[in-house]
Amino acid sequence: MIDVDGSNRGDVSINDALLAAEEAGLDLVEISPNAQPPVVKILDLGKLKYANQKKAAEARKNQKVIEIKEIKMRPNIDDHDYETKMKAVRRFFEEGDKVKLTLRFRGREMAHMELGMQLLNKVREETAAIAKVEAEPKLEGRQMMMVLAPR
Prior knowledge:
Monomer. The protein has 151 residues and is of the alpha+beta class. The protein is 39% helix and 28% strand. The relative contact order is 0.11.
């Protein structure tokens, strides 16, 4: 049993521990039930719950939620449009988000899948220093997709 001021009282019977807690006007809380013998402490249970709640809220506040941002392109994208999209991709990586690149094929563009693959490989090479490929380029219907994650 651990006393109110934190001193170790050693092995104490349950009844004696409950009496000591009642005299102090506090609660008897089981700290580690699996220990042999179980460790109990005299403290205010309301304060303990409040402190744990505050700690959990602080942990939730500090965690970063990783989002997946999507960039849509076409296989015959122009140079300036491509650079604009790449600027957005770099900004997303700086913010710590994943990027899903979607290439949409329309009409006869389906006959030239290699153009889409070349474009995605070009993106992969340009972002190799700051990102890693999480999902390789794959074709789903008329769309080719690739997911990149920041390093």
